[in-house]
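Annual report, structural modelling task.

Input specification for the adenosine monophosphate complex:
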Amino acid sequence: MNILVINAGSSSLKYQLMDPDTGAVSAKGICERIGIDGKFTYKAGGKTIIDAQEIPMPTHSEAIEAVLGALVSPEHGVVASMDEIDAVGHRVLHGGMEFTESCLVDEACKAAIRKCIPLGPLHNPANLTGIEACEKAMPGKPQVAVFDTAFHMTMPAEAYTYAIPYEYYEKDEVRRYGFHGTSHRYISGRALDMLGKTENPEGVRVINCHLGNGSSLCAMVGGKCVDTTMGLGPLAGIPMGTRCGDIDGTIIEFLMDKYGYDIKQMMNILNKKSGVLGISGVSSDFRDLEAAAENGNTRAKLALDKFFYEVRKSIGAYAAAMGGVDAIVFTGGIGENGIANRKRIMKGLEYLGCQIDDEKNNVRGKETIISTDDSSVKIMVIPTNEELMIAKDTAALAK
Ligand code: AMP
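The model returned the following structure:
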């Protein structure tokens, strides 16, 4: 089976053609600068065949045409015709309270995604545009929407309710939603498998640390989300590359009053200029921060210390919320590759029964257990694979 996985942003569109059973990717790439000058990249057979070639892409429709043209091209295509593409799976950011799982795209599904635009104003319109461009290019082909928020809909009310007047929940659906749900769901399945608990997951407590440019933690019991650090939007939780994470709302009033910022300027500061970039003034990239800290940059060191501290604190909070923890997982660019970072986060959590094994921890991007044999909590590295999850959901719903 061949599933085309699409992740459409406002000016970009990432794609992968994937076998949902094996996870094998036959082709992938990205369309960038859609609506500007259009750049197309296509990789197949492990090689870059088209590298940021300028192709006119006034809209997402031309981007999809370029993708399909490359996939079926007699020269470097990977399928003989579009008939060999069985279905299309779309990453959609916000499913609001409408979606607890993935759904086959129809008019009702599109209307519900549209209804969630106020909750995901930057992403949901782009996700819809990607869906509509595929409908136009491949009429009748089954399409599936997979939501970043859906996995978190099992959270109990005390975890998702904000302590603000309840009418904002009732009238406006203001609550914690959480993101990275497709990644957390993938990790949940893999962690249970590695624990030998796929058949009987009841009561198994896992904390997943998805640490990348955007970061979130998720607490799961029996494979289901019971809490997560992101909120109504992806700004909440631990500090990230450029996002502030949890802050006191008073800061917003204080800075807006003092500097005369409007709310757009303020949100731009909190989304784009904060996090480890904001503290360090150096970079949002952890490799740059590590290099700067090693060279004596004290603000870079503080940014790293703050990040590790907040991740550790969230792990402790979730262990308390779940009455203990059986496994802690690291994923995302930092979680999968940051050997020293993992060690620094776990330092101080020995009281929970977490013992990291330095030799086993000396690993990047590989699925493995990095705790000592006698550690009562299993510590794991699991490279995430959101695309595979999207392809599997798509295949199941398109059948
Ligand atoms: P992501 O958003 O998941 O792609 O993750 C991006 C982050 O992963 C960036 O901050 C990178 O610096 C970080 N990262 C990637 N490779 C490494 C590495 N070898 N060591 C530490 N951090 C890394």
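The domain at 3-147 is CATH 3.30.420.40 (Nucleotidyltransferase; domain 5).
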